[in-house]
Design a protein that fits this description.
Blueprint lengths: L4 H15 L1 H4 L1 H10 L9 H26 L2 H21 L8 H22 L2 E3 L2 E3 L4 H17 L22 H12 L6 H28 L3 H13 L7 H16 L18 H7 L1 H18 L6 H21 L1 H20 L4 H28 L12 E3 L5 H4 L6 H10 L1 H9 L1 H14 L7 H19 E3 L6 H5 L2 H18 L18 H33 L15 H18 L5 E3 L8 H5 L4 E2 L11 H16 L6 H10 L3 E5 L8 H7 L4 E2 L3 E5 L2 H5 L1
Parallel strand pairs: 5-6, 5-7
Antiparallel strand pairs: 1-2, 3-4, 7-9, 8-9
Helix pairs in contact: 1-9, 3-4, 3-5, 4-5, 4-8, 4-9, 4-13, 4-14, 4-16, 6-9, 6-10, 7-8, 8-9, 9-10, 9-13, 10-23, 12-13, 12-24, 13-14, 13-15, 14-15, 14-16, 15-16, 15-21, 20-23, 21-23
């Protein structure tokens, strides 16, 4: 019978979604109720649940890392179950019926459910007959699922799943807190939930955490009556469907490439036309851990501003929460925390020298100290390996530059200095394209809201400092550890959150009474008719950008087989990607079901980022580029060359192949039809039958594994 992986995945992802409240609701509920954080105990039941989510997302990653690191999954599981029992008891014991704002509550729930459905449909494998298509974010999921599965198999810190130079190597050179959470859900789900399911469900939950954090932030920040808080939150949540102005440039560039070269650029990563400031869909689908790190930072800001006039001893537990949030943010995204730490220091200096708020400074310092304490074991692992502390050339991991704009890369005959001057001059245009609608709304907010009474509001001043610090830092600093400038792409997320908040301020104060986002919401915004038309246009283009992101995520691999993407591309040499992926998943499922986890497998290491091995595999490999963190280029290239020769040469017997397997402790070879060795299988299978074979994949035992078995 033909196995339908789509139905199988949807079931597994939904089950994983149902398990994530153990991590993203119950810890925050107990904490919020115990500390009465944000006046938690007086909130309505649904608001308590909403507030529990960002609190959980801020403290759970750091706490669960520490427990898992120094205890075991059994202890982690016991703590999570205990917190769930306590949460349910308190919720039922003190439940009171909410009679207000039913309409907005229903709309918010509908919006959240629609997001979960849309995210699963977009990201789950799509099976059409005997063809299987993964989402284009498989580029990143290949690594993330590998690490999640490694944590499930080997604990914390995980063993590097694709680097085995004769012994297991711990994977410390990576911020892996998000994968710990996914692994916990993977283990709680048993055979019904895989690491792949848990990672996709984590993306669905990252969206819910984003919505809940915005709703919490606006409610606490503005201290409005209930109906206004619900309305403003619902308006703000809808703003997440707006991206930048990428739609314009992407269509122009893709049309040009397809017309001239017969292929499409970007390989499904549509923001690659410029150094991106990620759209919300891009951040959710590709790097949810960076996004949740930003949410933890935002919650820290909110806690720091609250109760400034309370006694210092009363606020110490709140400083502990900030410390846990900082530790979580660091373990989720070093770069987001790096930018936020600079803001934290500069904000503190403003409070000292301009406002003389010495007690607040002590509170902020205490939060930072707690953060260092909680993150120290993780930081020690990074420093011990040295894998994430410097650039590949042995220098600092940061360097100065002026943020480039795509237009300057097209100019020739200019000196580097002249191009840097042009990049500096183009910074406003650069940010207009990347931020689009939110760029304009920020200007309106500064003119109409901040310049009024806003200058006297503490949290408004903190938000402005965060925005200014982020722009300055990321306009002139970049990270050079890997080819991708992670700092310059991920570090914007706290600022982007604040821009959504500011946009909600403008629409709520000057907009119409409409609930749903539409161009008519700008009718009452102060300014000329031209301004309102520009706002409407940027909003529509932003929605089109986001729609294109969804389309690319779901359809890119399908477009390969339809020969729309063109060749070459980094997914397939032909239009049989769907058939080959289906065969790959069958082969990796066979490995999972018939061989123990201590068996070492190896596919062709010369393949760039082989998706199936990361998405569906759950065995150790000798070498692969999907988790080559902390591996020196010399060692990596040597292993790839010495093992890759097995796959790239035809063979008449198993002698040479077995000798390589013996030398490197390989138990099972994973061959596919694109490997040159595939042409020798008719000869080799006479001497040794495959343990599994289909049209595109074959599995063979080799080396010492044959002798021992």
């Amino acid at each position: 019978m033909l196995l339908n992986f789509t139905f199988h995945d949807i079931f597994g992802i939904l089950l994983a979604c149902l398990l994530y409240p153990f991590i993203f609701v119950f810890p925050g509920y107990v904490t919020g109720y115990t500390l009465n954080l944000f006046n938690f105990r007086k909130r309505t039941p649904i608001v308590q649940i909403i507030m529990a989510m960002p609190i959980s997302a801020s403290i759970a990653p750091a706490i669960l890392f520490l427990v898992y690191r120094f205890a075991s999954f059994s202890v982690v599981f016991s703590i999570l179950v205990l917190l769930a029992v306590l949460s349910i008891y308190v919720f039922v014991r003190f439940y009171r019926q909410s009679m207000h704002d039913k309409n907005y509550q229903r709309l918010a729930i509908i919006f959240a459910v629609l997001w979960v459905i849309l995210s699963i449909i977009t990201l789950a494998d799509l099976q059409i007959g005997n063809r299987l298509y993964f989402s284009s974010n498989s580029y990143d999921l290949t690594t993330r699922v590998s690490v999640t599965d490694a944590i499930t198999r080997t604990g914390v810190p995980p063993v590097n799943p694709s680097y085995y130079p004769g012994q297991t190597i711990l994977l410390n050179s990576l911020y892996y807190y998000w994968y710990i959470l996914a692994s916990i859900v993977d283990q709680m789900g048993g055979n019904l939930v895989s690491a792949y399911h848990a990672m996709i469900a984590s993306i669905s939950w990252a969206g819910l955490l984003l919505f809940a954090t915005l709703a919490t932030y606006l409610r606490v920040r503005d201290d409005q009556e209930s109906q206004s808080a619900w309305k403003k939150s619902f308006i703000g949540i809808q703003l997440f469907v707006i991206g930048g102005l990428d739609f314009i440039m992407v269509l122009i560039i893709m049309s040009s490439f397809h017309f001239r070269l017969g292929q499409l650029p970007f390989q499904g990563q549509l923001e690659g036309w410029n150094m991106p400031i990620m759209s919300w869909m891009n951040a959710l689908a590709w790097v949810p851990h960076h996004l949740v790190a930003a949410l933890a930072c935002i919650l820290s800001l909110l806690i720091a501003v609250q109760n400034m006039d309370k006694k210092f001893t009363y606020r110490i537990p709140h400083a502990i929460i900030i410390g846990l949030a900082f530790a979580s943010a660091f373990g989720l995204s070093v770069w987001v925390m790096f930018v936020f730490a600079i803001f934290w220091i500069i904000w503190g200096m403003v409070l000292i020298f301009k406002e003389k708020k010495y007690q607040q400074i002590l509170f902020m310092i205490l939060g930072g100290v707690f953060g260092l304490i909680f993150v120290f074991p993780f930081l020690l692992g990074i420093l011990r390996d040295g894998g994430a502390s410097s650039s590949p050339n042995g220098g600092l991991p940061l360097a100065f530059y002026i943020r480039p704009f795509m237009i300057t890369s097209l100019l020739t005959g200019f000196s580097h200095f002249a191009l840097s001057i042009l990049d500096f001059a183009f910074l406003p245009l650069n940010y207009l394209f990347e931020l689009g609608f939110f760029f304009l709304m920020a200007i309106i907010w500064l003119q109409e809201i901040y310049q009024g009474e806003g200058r006297s509001i503490s949290i408004y001043k903190a938000e402005l400092i965060l925005v200014v610090v982020t722009i300055v830092v990321l306009s002139f600093l970049y990270s050079n550890i890997i080819v991708i400038n992670d700092l310059g792409i991920r570090g914007w997320l706290p600022l982007q959150f604040i821009l959504v908040v500011w946009s909600a301020d403008v629409l709520f104060q000057f907009g119409s009474v409409k609930k749903w986002l539409s161009p008519r919401m700008f009718d009452r915004v102060k300014g000329t008719k031209t301004l309102r038309l520009v706002l409407s246009a940027t909003m529509i283009i932003g929605i089109l950008t986001m729609s294109l992101e969804f389309l690319s995520l779901r359809a890119w691999s399908i477009l390969v087989d339809m020969n729309v993407v063109g060749f070459p591309n980094n997914l397939s040499p032909d239009t049989r990607l769907g058939n080959r992926t289906y065969s790959a998943r069958l082969a990796y499922n066979y490995l999972r079901d018939h061989f123990s986890h201590d068996v070492i497998t190896q596919n062709n290491p010369l393949d760039f980022l082989d998706r199936p091995s990361g998405l569906y595999g759950n065995h150790q490999m000798i070498i692969s580029n999907r988790t080559s963190y902390g591996v020196s280029p010399e060692i990596y290239d040597d292993l790839v060359d010495n093992i890759g020769v097995v796959f790239t040469k035809e063979a008449s017997d198993w002698g040479t192949i077995d000798s390589v397997c013996m030398k490197y402790s390989i138990d099972i070879l994973i061959l596919k039809d694109t490997d040159p060795l595939w042409d020798s299988l008719e000869t080799l299978k006479v001497q040794r039958p495959p343990i599994y074979e289909n049209e595109y994949y074959a599995l063979y035992t080799c080396g010492g594994y044959i002798i021992s078995n």
